[in-house]
Each structure stands twice: as C-alpha cells, then as structure tokens.
Amino acid sequence: MTTTVLLFTLLKVIVIVFVVLTAVAYAVWFERKVVARLQSRWGPTRVGPHGLLQPLADAIKLLTKEDITPANVFRLVYFLAPALSVITALLAFAAIPFGPVTLVGGVDLFQIANLDIGVLYILSISSMGVYGIALAGWSSNSKYALLGGLRSSAQMISYALAAGLSLVGVLLLSGSLNLRDIVNAQAGATWGFIPHWNIFPQLLGFFCFLTAAIAQTNRLPFDLPEAESELVAGYHTEYSSMKFAMFFMAEYANMLTVSCMVTLLFLGGWHGPVFGPALLQTMLPLLWFSLKVLALLFLYIWIRGTLPRFRYDQLMAFGWKFLFPLALVNVLLTSLIVAYRAD
Amino acid sequence: MPESILNGLFFYVLAVVILGGAIMTITRRNAVHSAIWLVVTLMGVAGLYLHLNAEFLAAVQILVYIGGIMVLFLFVIMLVNLDEAAKQRQFNRQWSLALICTLVVLVEFGFFLMRGAGSFAFAEPGQGALKPNTELMAVALFQDYLLPFEIASLLLLVAILGAVLMAKKEI
After folding, report:
1. Which residues pair with A194 in a beta bridge?
2. CB-CB under 8 Å, B59 with A120
C-alpha cells in the first residue's frame, strides 16, 4: 500500500464520517418534521427556512450545556459508555458500499473497505452496540438507568437472533457474505420493469429483518429501554450535555445503518435506471441509494408516529414466539427452494 | 522487511491485550469490571484470528462471544446484587500449593517446548488457498465432518434441554 493510497483512504474515511454525522443531524430534523405533520403540527420552523438550521442550533445547545456527572457513578465506565455507543455505531459504515465500484487512482470512491464478510461484520459490530447502553445503565448507579440498561440488553440479544436468521434467506439466494456481491446479484429486471430485488422472493425475510432491526435500534414501538412513562429516560437518565447527545447520535446512526442494510440486502442497493452523460451515470446510483435509505427512514418515523408502545412481556413474547419461528420458517422455505433449483 | 516487523508488532500487541485483559479479569474486585476486561480479552483473540486471515472466525468470535455470551454474563451480573460478594475475601490463601502446581506445569511446558522446538515452524500458506474463507469453513463443516458436526449439535441441544429442565420448578 503506497502512501498516496493510504492518504486517499484516510480522506475517504473523514468524508464519510462527516456525511454520516450530517445525515444523523438531519435525520433528527426529518423526524421532528414528519412526526409533527403526522400529528397536525408544524415542527421546527423558526431557525432558518423550514427550520433547516435547527440541527445546528441543537448541536450548539448540547455542546455548551452544563455537563453534570452525578456523585456516585462508576467514573471510568460512565465516561466510556457514550463513546462506545458512538464508535460502534460509526464503525459499521466502514463496510457499507454506497455505490458501484468507481476507481479513482486505484481507490474505490464509494466504500471504505470491501470485506468478504461484510454482512457478518456489520452484524457483529452492531451487536457490540449493546455494551454502550448496558454499561451506561449500570455505571449511572440509578435504578431507572439500570432497569433501562437491563431491558435493552435482553431486548437486543433476543432480536439480534431473529435479525441474523432472517438474513440467511438473502445469503442463500446470493451465495455470498460480501455486500457488493449481494447487491450485484440483484441487478436487472424481469420483463423490463420488475427489478430483481431480494424483497420479492424474500418478503418474509424482509418483514422479519425490518421488525427485528427496529427493535434492535430501540425505536418505537419497541423503545421500552427508554419508556419515559415508567423509566424517566431509561439508560441515559443520568447523562447530560454532549454525553447525552452521543447516545442520541448513536441511535440515529444505527437507524441509518439499518436503512442502509435493508437497502443493500433487500432493495437492490444502488440499482436503478441509469442514463445520460458519464458524470450523471456515476452520480445516479448514489441518488437511488440515498432515496431508498430516505424512504426507509420515513417508514421508521411513520411507524413511530402511528403505533403505540408494546408492554415488555408482549415485546419478549413477540420476539421469541413469533418473529424467531417465522425467521426459521423463512430459512427452511428458502433453503428448500434453493436445493430444489440446484437439482 | 517492514512487513514481517509489522506482523510481529501486531502479534505482540494482541498478546499483551489478551494476557493483560485476562489478568485484569481475575484480579478485579467488581464483577462488572471483570466482565469488561474479559470482553477486552475476547476482542484480542478476535484480533488474532484476523491476524491469521481467519476473518470468518473473527467475526463469529465477536458475534457469539462478545455480542451474545458476554452480554448475558453482564445481564446476570447486573441483575444479581453482588455488592455483598465484593466485600468478601476474593482469594484463597493457598499460594504455596498453587505455586508448586504452577511450577510443575511450567517445567513440563518448558521441557516439551525445548524438545519439540522444530515442529513449531508453520508452513507457508499457499497464495490464494485461504481466500474464500467462509466457503472453506462451510465445506469442512458440512461435507468433510458432517457427522461429528451433527453429533456436536445434538449434544448441545441435549445440554440446552437439560439446563431448561433444571431451571424450571415444575414441568
């Protein structure tokens, strides 16, 4: 690896982190706007046109607020937990391809690392996200935070299983763990207009993964770890200022990761109609990718604005007694079909 | 040879992480701290797998041990009140016996390392032979060693059923 390639890769990392963090900030704005519309309100309108500068104002507010550390916390772990959350959330983006292979000077523009085990990498990194939350709950030395942390660790383990299993169908169809290969297996269309996306043969898997992923990212209707009516704010009750903001960032970054994963695995990634001059041809896949991710984010927020919260025992029963067997059935059906086709 | 120096550096850094984490695991008073250090150790082992080009193993190590088993450990530790246990004596005063045992094992290890030093040289992996890592693993597990694999999974199933049976008060 030459120095220029190394520098270029570093630059790429910085750009992608910057883009992801900006997207996270605007995901918050998007959510506030959409939820407001769903509830017949306006949402943020004061800061900038359509409240577009609101994320900036929020960031300044959170950065300059007083940072309170409660007296009886376990200091090192208390400081480590929010950082752990953000780091695991951001690390997942290292393996996500945002567009087709576009080589400039021997370096792929739209992906940091093309891993052979991309799917597994993202699953394992996001499975580590639970530590940030569980340790935050424990180290805060507060019963609400502890209960929130406990709930979230139980929930994440339960649903991680269903999420992993529901992906097996896709892996069987494409025969690879590499995200790029999986997307490339979805190129083309039947009769010229029905795209070869995995969502059609894997509707069951899509439903299972989306549900499990919403539960894993602690979003409504599965946001029991921070159910404010019973747990104050759950695991981040004792956090303030930027440390609180880091949990917030991690949650939205995880939403973004899930949306990217669903786009890549089920919605054909960056595939879409490509036309026009060369520059447009390189940019269009990025646009399709972003639009699909945006649509999934909207779905997230739509669900949040529509469904009430589960009760905790309902949540566990749903995960283990419904979603998990459903994912197993999906694996069984898909492998039967794949085996039948291979004969 | 910067490549081999870098390789050695990675190995020793990972070894320090693994051993340091292991020592911290057994010496911490607080059970949660022990669990965190155990996570560090397991992460170091995952790093070693990665260093050996066994990326599938590394990912599974993180997914299963760090993302699954250790979270359950933490879960149980956080659920059970361990303040009382932390106040009690953590070590048995049997260091003389332990020292003798350790010395015997050390001498044994040393003897075999000296005698069989020649057999520790690793063969160079063929270029490209290790490439489709996951596929090789699947072939080994589901074709070459299918029967042992099935037996092992059956054993695990029996163990799970046994654990459930023992944990349940009435069936």
Report:
1. A190
2. yes
CB contacts of B80 in chain A (<8 Å) are: none
Residue B47 lies in a domain: yes
Q: Which of A74, A123, A150 sits opposite B75 (nearest CB)?
A: A150
Check if A141 contacts B (Cβ < 8 Å): no
Q: CATH no. for residue B25? A: 1.20.120.1200
Half-sphere exposure of A186 (CA within 13 A, CB side): 26
Instruction: Reduce the DSSP state of residue B28 to 3 states and report it.
Output: coil
Residue with tokens 């069936």: B171
Tell me whether residue B152 is in a domain: yes
- On whether residue B73 sits in a domain, the answer given is yes
Picking from A109, A108, A107, A111, the residue whose alpha carbon sits closest to that of residue A96 is: A111
Residues A264-274 pLDDT 10s: 888 887 887 77
Choose from A128, A151, A155, A161 for mutation: most chain B CBs within 10 A.
A128
What pLDDT does B22 receive? Answer: 93
Asked if B75's CB is within 8 angstroms of A153's CB, the reply is yes
Q: Which helix (H) or strand (E) element contains residue A189? A: strand A189-190
B78 chain-A contacts, CB cut-off 8 A: 134, 137-138, 146, 149-150, 153
Cα A128 to the chain's mean position, in Å? 13
Nearest Cβ partner for A128 among B33, B62, B78: B62
> Chain B contact for A123, CB < 8 A?
yes
* Model confidence pLDDT, tens digit, residues A114-171: 888 888 888 888 888 888 888 888 888 777 888 888 888 788 888 888 888 888 888 8
Structural domain span for residue B139 = 131-171
Neighbouring residues of B78: CB distance < 8 A, sequence distance ≥ 6: A134, A137, A138, A146, A149, A150, A153, B32
What is d(CA A253, CA A89) in angstroms, rounded to the nearest whole number?
6
In the predicted model, is pLDDT for residue A1 greater than 70? no
The verdict on a CB contact (< 8 Å) between B55 and A115 is yes
How much is the pTM?
0.83
Same domain, B74 and B3: yes
Picking from B57, B76, B56, B64, the residue whose alpha carbon sits closest to that of residue B39 is: B64
Q: Report whether pLDDT(B44) > 90.
A: yes
Q: How far apart are CA A264 and CA A241, in angstroms?
A: 35
Short-list A235, A259, A257, CA closest to A247: A235
Average pLDDT value over all residues in chain A: 83
Q: What is the largest CA-CA distance in chain B?
A: 66
Clarify whether residues B61 and B137 are in a common domain: no
